[in-house]
Every structure is written in C-alpha cells, then in structure tokens.
Write a structure and sequence with these properties.
heterodimer, A: 825 residues, Ubiquitin-like (UB roll), Rossmann fold, Dimethylsulfoxide Reductase, domain 2, seven-stranded mixed sheet, five-stranded mixed sheet, B: 207 residues, Alpha-Beta Plaits, two-stranded antiparallel ribbon, 6 helices, 10% strand
C-alpha cells in the first residue's frame, strides 16, 4: 500500500451523479469512504473481510442492487446510494435491529456513541412494525477484561471478524441463540433483505469459540473497540463513565515498537478526588488494531505532587560524576537526543542493550544493502500475499507484526513461513497455507539460506552462494505408490435373462513406481521432511505476487548477526522479498539512530528506569522521579519507520530530564523544543513538534508525524559466510521472551494486565518443571515461578524480561537463548 | 410621528379646562364645618360593615385569608424551582436515578457531579451524587432533562443554612423511605404532559 496514488491504478466512478476517483479493485464502500461519501453500514470493518451481516450498505450499481462492502468498483460504474426500494430495505433492517433491543440507553456504556442509535435516527425509524418473543440473554464475563452483555448485542459480527481476520485468535464466534422462529407471514410482507438478515440474527449470538464460558485469547480487547453497541466493554470500564465526559488525548502507545495511535480518555477520579485519571484507551479501529498492553496498560503514570529539590540536586551531582548512563528504549526521541548530547558534552557512556544490538544489526544491514533502513513498513507487509517470519516470536514480540502475518493469510489469500525454535500452536491456525519450521536454536542462518534457495533468482546469486546452496541438494530414488486406472474385463451373468456378458470396468490400482526426488538438506536441517515440504511449498506459491519478510529480535541477539544482516540484504537483492524489522523495544529504532551507544557499563552509573548507582525513575521507585510516557510530550520512532508524536494525558509536577539538561549543559525551554534538532543525517526531519499531525485520513492514510527518510549509503560487496554450526544450542534452553501483553515495567504496573513475571512453558513442560524453579545461568541464577502457556509447544522455556529489576538482559548477555540448568525448588 | 408636538413648549396657549371646585374655607368655623361634613358621611358605615362582615367570616365561618408563616405556608406553583429532591420508585422504593449523567452534562453552572459503578446486581449504581448549591442557579434544566423524573425541584424554598453542604448529598435529597407514601409526583418542567399518550406510537409485542 504505497501512499502515492498513481494514475494507473485509479478508476473513476460516479456516486449520485458526482464523479470520484477510486483505487482499482477497491470495494465500493471503501471507495466512497475515501471520497467522503456516506453509505450506511454497520458490520463492515475496513481491513477485514465483509460479513454481510447488516445488509445496510445496499446500493444500486449499474442498475443492480449490490452490497457496497463486497462489490468492487469498476471503471465508469454508476452508483446510486438511495433508491426507494433500498430505503425501504434499510428502514426495515433498522426496525428489526430495534426489535427487543433493551431501552437502557440511559445507562449503556456507549452513552450516545452508539451506531444502532445513530442509524435508527439517520433512517428516521419512528415506529415499529415487527415483533418477536425475546430470548433470555445473559451478561457474561469472558475473561479478566472482556464483558459481554448479550441482550444489547445486534450480532453484527464485527467482533468475531476482527478477532479472526486481524488478531488471529478466532476466540469468539457466532453460536445458536435458541430464539423463536420468525412468523411465516413476515416472509411475504417484509422487504427481502431485511427478512434474511432478521432470520439470521434471530438464530445467532456471540460466544467463546472454544465452547466454554471463557475465551482463550490474548485479551487484546479489540472486540470491545469495534462493537457498535454497548454489548462488549472492558470489565473495568463498565458503568464507570459516560463517553462524553472523557477528554480524548491523542497519543502514541509506548509499550512496544508498533507505536500505535491511541487516545487516552481521561476525567476526574471521583466526586471527591478531582485529580485526573485515565479511564480507557480507544483507537481508530478501522485503521489500527491494538494489543492488550496498549488497550489495558494505561495506568502507569508516576504521580508526583511537587518538585523535590534535594533529589534534583543529588541527581545533578550524580550526572556530574557519572561514567555511564544506563537506559532502556521506553524513552522519547527527544530524551534520547538529550542523552546523546550529554555523551557529546560530558563524555559519558550510553548503555542500552536492546537498542545496541539492533543498532549493530542495522549498521551491518545498511552496509550490505546500501540503505540506512529496512525496505518495508508493516503496512506494506500487510499488503503482500506471501510472508516469512524469521527470528521473531510472533505472538509475543510484536502484536502488529502478528496481526500483519495473520491478516495476509485471511485477506490476501496468502501464505506464510514461520521459522522459530519455540513451537507455537496459534500461528498454524492463521491460515491453511502457513508452514511452521520449529528448528534448532542457532539455525536462523539456515532459514535464511532456505529462503534464498526457494525465492532467489539464481542468476543474480553470487557463485559461491549458488554452489553452497547446491551442496545441500541430493537426489535420491524413492518408491512412491501411485493410483492408476486400469481396465478390467469381467464376465457377469445377467440376473434377469441369465445371459453371460462381457463388462469392461475401470478399477483403480496402486502401482509402485520409482521416482527421483531432490532432497534439500536445508529443509531437513530445519526439522521438516524435504519432499513433503516441496509439495506444500508448490501449493503455497500458487498465484503469489508480492513477498515480504519479518525479522525479529533473535537475529539481533545472534552471535553471527553480521552474517545474518548480510544474508538479509542478499535476499532483498536477489529475490522479490522485501524486509521489515521489528525493533526489540518501544523506541529502539529511534535510540539506535540518535544515540551513539556503548557496549559495557563502567564506573559510577546513572540508571534511567534501569538499575544504577543513582536511579532516575518514572516508576516512582528511584532517587529522582521522572514523568512516565503518558505524562510527557515527545516523539517516538516506531517500527513503521515513522516519527509519531505523543501527548501528555496526565499532569506531572516534578522534574523532567530537560530540567537536568538545563543545569548540566544548557537546554531549550521545553522537551519538545528538541524535536526539531533530531539528526537529519539519520533520516529525521527538522519539524516542530506542534506541527506534527496525529490521526488517520478517511481513506486510511496514516497522517501521523512524518516518515523517516531511508537514506542510501555506499554498499559494500556482500560476502556471506556459511552456516555457523557452532551457534547451534542443544539441551535445556531458556529463551528471553515476554508473555503477551507484557513489554516493560510500565505494562506490569498497569492494574488490568495480569501476566506475571516468570518462566513460561508449554503445558507438558510446565508439568514436568513443577511450580517454582531455579534457573542456573552458570555465573548467576534466578528463582522464578513456572507459568503455563498453552500456546507454547516443545521444551524451550521462555523467561520474561519486562522487570528491569530482575536484570534478565544481563543474564542472557549477547544472545536471546541460553543453555541453562533448571532445578526444581 | 414627528417631534413637532414636543417642540411646542408654549404651555399657556393650550386649552385647559378649569374645575369648578369649592373655595377652601378661610374662617375657622368654615374649616370645622368641612371636617364634620366629610367625616360623618354614610360611606363610613358601609366600610365598617364590610370589615365587620369579614371579621365574622374569618373568625366564625373559617374563611381566614392570612396564614401564620412560618407555622403555615402557602402552596406554591409546581413550576417553582426550589431545592432539588430525589424521588423513589413507588413500587420498589428504590431510587429512580439510573445514573445516566444527563443532569451532570446539561448543568450550566457545572454544579452536579456523580460517580457510578457496576454493582453486584449487574446494575449501574450511583455511588456518589452531589449538587454544589453554592453554584446552582436553580435553572431547572436538570429536572427537565431527567428521563426518569428522578431529580425534581421540590417545594423547599427556605434555603438559609449554616452550610450549603446541608442540602447537597444524595441522601439529603432522597425521599425518606418511611415517607414514601407522601412523595408527590412532579408537575414542573420535564414532567409528562397530560396528553402524552396521544403522542406515543405503540410498539407491537409478541407475547
């Protein structure tokens, strides 16, 4: 999805007499929305498949009635939004939706933002012609965060659609309602579409798809966001506030590198406590999908009543004698630039392990590829139809990468290859063309070589790579059984006449046949059977046109990261695949670009949200308080290579980093005055913070901040090395990986996020490990709880790293995998 | 209309009519006679008769026209906007307020605040409700907007108190449960119109 509209792929259509331009192959509804033309529709979600549940988007196109949500535009198409017949249908549909809908708008959490209410008024429904006996529908809590009031549900299926097509959990689906059958007389008297819609509505209701009362999902809450009525709500939000009371603060989510656009919605805490509090997080759900951390991890603010001058002076002293500043990537670009200024002027070392690894990797990639940044953003990835993921625990590392992977399968009839050492039960359910390679730890290079082998234009490959790839191929003869139709002549006796007859029949017969098959040792090395994979791969490649690859943190923390980065550049050079990278933490990309990072911390250390001799902390447990991300303005660089602004939702009365800067080296008045100083040489722009937009346009264009410039640099010749056999790990392995919805101390602080700190293991492994274990890393050990994750598979366990206190990064060192000894405690 | 008539300030030219009045007596005896003549007219006794009649009516026939404020008070118009009251449902005794927040929203002096929560019976509970009577201008919008006729203006117009807070809590405004039988329906702005039934379209029911 490029943002430049080229003339070739635009067609012109006429809606109600006015001519508009639309993208070729676009649904009429989307084309109309992009051109600010209103067509009523409830059940359609922009980036998901049309469900045809509401049938409101009925329009007349070239004289035929079609549903605007699933009919594509054609050049010169004439569309009429309202005809007398369509208006009659729509009115009947809205009347049907209003049948038995509880009249509790006064208490409903939608509080006027209700689409049912809006369309009832829009279509001027002022009387009711239909009736049916109501069915008892009960309120249910599906999970720790989801609240479902079935009585309010209009079964538009937006929740089930988004859960399947975007999130990939498919945790909820329609089920039997057990309602009364419709009165037969209605079939004759009602408009056709309204009757069909009612017939379906009366039979279904939403429920967890696993047959229990509870959903087994990642608790992202996207279903509550898309619900047009008050049926689905966050449990914590139920009846706590009216929508109109909440002030919306546009911001950028600060938990992972997706950097999604969100709104913090805030008002006073209570009648007696007038200090403001965030009540919920909402999003532009047609254009961006949040994860559970973004939606529920909002109350991580650091409430500071006044400036603590003593602590501030101590901090100034600490900075003056500091040799090292340790920090993590949950900081804004402006703060990163401040730290870099400190380094330049005071000569301190800057230590940030996650950004450092990413920085080195990016540098190696830039040298090989001749461009400063990776090629694709994740929106472009989402538009492809074949996606490969290497070195990312898709479910945990980055929700948006996972949504993209899933969306490709569902919407683009796509296919996907997923290379990862930790087995996953969710990823294969994304689509039938998803192949999982659960390979040994350290074989990421083999995965990349396989990608080269499968996709590369062999002409373009360097000679040594070509011969290296060929060295994996062996031909073998294999006996396969084949079905052959054979003519058999039989003599049968006709039962009636008693005559003998010759009858020839075709009978299938299994014939053994010798064939030569090419075996690819790379596939075998990665844990799959070569010829079986060949067959599936052939199927996967059918009708595929665009290819993308997601690479993740495992590769940045790989001991052969340089070779891997070169391989990725080579893949981009010789195959149609374009690569997008997942920065490990929130602003790792920004930090990697802005700061000149060091590897080791030495001497007196100031920690910013990290351990140190003197601690600056936005968590409220340090020596000097700092504002948390929902209390400060600034910009973040997200994985879409975009610099996006975030605003302060809650007040903060203490000191911030800029105050320290003023004393130490001199600084402008405000933190956001640093925005225009971000380094242009790294692709930033000299834009003022206040000029940065933060929203989406009607056609889905992301109008947020600005995109980083992908600068071209001098490319070195790519000399890739062979697969490093030494990096393969075997035995008891622990993986540094957070559970879903946990990214850092801030998500952990939020009261609606319950995933604990511990060792995550597949059910079988968790049973074997018991409740609590000591993990011995050799030099150090850590004792943690074992937590079962039923979507994990295999023996590799995952140790969370979101608690900076536990200092898991230093336990793992330069790798994401470590061989350890685990003892039961 | 022109201004000519106002510009004519020559008063003496206008046609005044002189009244034919008696001359004021000059002599003492003349003055005395005038007083006696004016005092002892029969109208005096007509007036005294009316007073006597009203006194008898008031004292003996129960037609007293004055009241003994503050022991007695006159009824006031239903449209009068005094201190608010919170009404209860007559059937269950539960408070009528559903916590919709419309009064809070419409209040032009921003004096109503409320907190709501999801209670154990899966209902919206009004956990806190206050009106700041220091700011309230008694405009009546809250009563008019209330969809449940829960917040209404009562009849209590004596609002002198040591503290305004004495009126401002939900419990203070709520009809005491033991006086539920005395609760009056509100007829002021926002109440159901007498012909409301005529304006309603009936919804069919399948029961």
């Amino acid at each position: 999805m490029s943002e430049v509209k080229t003339v070739e792929n635009m067609v012109s259509i006429t809606i109600d007499g006015t001519t508009y331009q639309a993208k070729e192959g676009e649904y009429i509804l989307n084309a109309a929305r992009a051109n600010d033309v209103f067509i009523p529709a409830i059940c359609y979600l922009t980036r998901c498949s049309p469900t045809l549940a509401c049938r409101l988007c009925l329009v007349e196109a070239d004289g035929k009635q079609v549903y605007a949500c699933n009919a594509k535009v054609k050049d010169g198409m004439e569309i009429t939004v309202d005809t007398p017949n369509i208006l009659e249908e729509r009115r009947a549909i809205m009347e049907v939706y209003d049948v038995n809908h509880p009249l509790q708008c006064g208490v409903c959490d939608k509080s006027g933002e209700c689409e049912l209410q809006n369309y009832t008024l829009e279509l001027a429904v002022d009387s009711q012609s239909y009736a049916i006996q109501d069915t008892k529908r009960e309120v249910k809590n599906w999970s720790t965060v989801l609240h479902y009031d079935a009585a309010l549900c209009i079964v538009c299926e937006r929740c089930t659609t988004v859960c399947k097509d975007m999130i990939g959990d498919a945790a909820i689906s329609t089920t039997k309602r057990g309602g009364e059958p419709l009165d037969k007389a209605y079939k004759e008297t009602m408009p056709k579409d309204a009757y069909a819609m009612w017939n379906k509505l009366q039979k279904s209701i939403i429920a967890p798809s696993n047959g229990t009362d509870y959903t087994n999902c990642s608790d992202c809450g996207e279903c509550t966001a898309v619900c047009p009525v008050g049926a689905l709500t966050g449990r914590d939000f139920v009846y706590s506030s009216n929508a109109w009371e909440l002030e919306r603060v546009p911001a950028t989510c600060a938990h992972c590198s997706s950097g999604c656009q969100i709104y913090y919605e805030k008002k006073h805490t209570s009648v007696f406590d007038r200090s403001e509090k965030i009540y919920r997080v909402t999003n532009e759900w047609n254009y961006v999908s949040l994860c559970g951390a973004g939606r529920y991890g909002y109350d991580f603010e650091n409430r500071v009543e006044s400036k603590d001058e003593a602590a501030f002076n101590a901090a100034v002293e600490a900075f003056k004698k500091a040799e090292t500043i340790r920090f993590n990537s949950v900081i804004t670009n402006e703060e990163a630039l401040m730290l870099q200024t400190l380094k330049e002027k005071m000569g301190v070392k800057l230590v940030n392990p996650d950004a450092r690894a990413f920085q080195k990797f990016l540098d190696a990639y830039a040298k090989a590829a001749g461009q400063s940044l990776y090629s694709y953003d994740f929106k472009e990835v989402m538009a492809t139809d074949f996606v490969i993921s290497v070195g990312a625990s898709l479910r945990n590392d980055n929700p948006n990468a996972r949504y993209a992977f899933n969306n490709i399968q569902k919407m683009n009839k796509g296919a996907g290859l997923y290379f990862h050492p930790v087995g996953d039960t969710l990823v294969p359910t994304f689509g039938k063309n998803v192949e999982l390679f659960t390979h040994k730890v350290g074989l990421e290079e083999a995965a990349l070589y396989l990608v080269l082998d499968l996709f590369a234009d062999k002409e373009k490959l360097p000679e040594d790579v070509k011969s290296y790839l060929d060295s994996f191929k062996t031909t073998a003869t294999k006996t396969v059984k084949e079905k052959v139709m054979k003519n058999v002549t039989e003599t049968v006796i006709d039962e009636e006449t008693g005559e003998e007859k010759q009858v020839t029949k075709k009978v299938p017969e299994m014939v053994e046949k010798e064939v030569t098959v090419e075996k690819n040792a790379l596939v075998e090395m990665l844990g799959k059977e070569s010829d079986a994979f060949d067959a599936t791969f052939e199927k996967m490649m059918k009708k595929k046109e665009s290819f993308s690859m997601i690479v993740g943190e495992d590769l940045y923390f790989h001991d052969r990261y340089e070779n891997i980065a070169k391989l990725i550049a080579l893949i981009e050079q010789t195959t149609p695949i374009r690569v997008a990278m997942i920065p490990p933490k929130t602003n790792s990309l920004g930090v990697a670009l802005i700061c000149d990072l060091d590897d080791e911390a030495t001497g007196y250390t100031v920690g910013y949200n990290e351990n140190g001799n003197f601690r600056l902390s936005a968590l409220g447990n340090g020596d000097l308080d700092m504002p948390a991300m929902n209390q400060q303005e600034g910009t973040l660089t997200n994985m879409h290579k975009r610099v996006t602004p975030t605003n302060a939702a809650l007040e903060y009365n203490g000191y911030e980093l800029n105050d320290l800067m003023k004393v130490l080296v001199g600084a402008p008045d405000l933190t956001v005055d640093w925005t225009e100083k971000l380094p242009v040489s790294k692709g930033f722009k000299t834009a003022k913070f206040d000029d940065l937009p933060n929203g989406y346009l009607n056609d889905g264009t992301e109008n947020r901040g600005y995109a980083l410039e992908n600068l071209s640099c001098e490319a070195e010749a790519i000399n890739v090395e062979k697969i490093g056999e030494n990096s393969v790990l075997e035995g008891e392995i622990v993986y540094r990986c957070n559970p879903q919805r946990q990214f850092n101390d801030f998500t952990d602080k939020a009261h609606e996020i319950f995933e604990g700190f511990g060792l995550y293991a597949s059910p079988a492994k968790a049973e074997a490990l018991g409740k609590k274990v000591e993990i011995d890393f050799g030099d150090r050990s850590i004792t943690v709880d074992v937590i079962e994750d039923d979507r994990m598979e295999g023996d590799i366990t995952a140790l969370a790293d979101f608690k900076s206190e536990a200092d898991v990064y230093s336990l793992f060192g330069p790798s994401r995998y470590r061989k350890v000894t685990i003892r039961k405690v | 209309m022109g201004l000519e008539q106002f510009k004519n300030r020559n008063v003496g030219q206008q046609e005044y009519v002189m009244l034919d009045l008696e001359h004021t007596p000059q002599s003492p005896i003349g003055k005395f006679k005038q007083v006696v003549k004016r005092t002892f007219k029969p109208e005096l006794f007509v007036g005294l008769g009316v007073t006597m009649r009203e006194m008898i009516n008031a004292l003996f026939r129960g037609q007293m026209h004055t009241i003994k404020y503050p022991f007695e008070k006159l009824p006031i118009s239903p449209r009068y906007r005094a201190i608010h009251e919170m009404l209860r449902l007559l059937e269950s005794g539960h408070y009528r307020c559903i916590g919709c927040g419309l009064c809070e929203k419409i209040c032009i002096s921003n004096c109503i605040t409320m907190d709501t929560r999801y209670d154990e019976n899966q209902r919206k509970e009004v956990s806190e409700y206050t009106i700041n009577f220091g700011r309230c201008i008694f405009c009546g919008y809250c009563a008019e907007v209330c969809p449940e006729l829960a917040i209404v203006h009562g009849q209590r117009y004596e609002t002198a108190s040591e503290q305004r807070a004495s009126f401002s809590l939900f419990e203070d405004m709520l009809t005491p449960i033991d006086k539920l039988n005395l609760q009056q329906e509100y007829d002021g702005f926002g109440a159901v119109t007498p012909n409301a039934d005529e304006n309603i379209k009936k919804t069919p029911l399948a029961y």
